[in-house]
């Protein structure tokens, strides 16, 4: 019976940072009224004030979610509240400051973002994968040398679950009708793309 060749198993990791070219914003508008109809109508007026920002070239509204409900004080109704949450993707980061200024000028209940990302992370991921494999090979070669042998062929490779893109969070130009956001630091930030792998190699001459 032929004895199988000894193997070395190593993990490798690699990462690449690229400046973000896409951002996500989340904005919420609130309104109150004596009835659901009154609250909804007031909400419509407040959201309409943001339509200039939402219609900017390079912006895409990814989703809207509306809720209308009765509020209570103790056990008695105390008017109604309506809200709309809007998810916005900014594909042209040059208009981000103007968009934020206009949205803030519409007096939302809250605005969060930007959450930075890459429009084409796969192009960057390929380089991170190459670095991860090279890292795994270097580790394996070190173990092989420590054992008095050399590294043989690659037997198998698997991808680790941490593989992927790490979004970055953050929050200058005055847009007409909006506040000055010049000092908020809205320039695109680096986004890190990581790759992790597990490799198995044969050991020769140990």
From TrEMBL:
Domain of life: Bacteria
One Pfam short name: SIMPL
Name of the protein: SIMPL domain-containing protein
Biological classification of the source: Bacteria, Bacillati, Actinomycetota, Actinomycetes, Pseudonocardiales
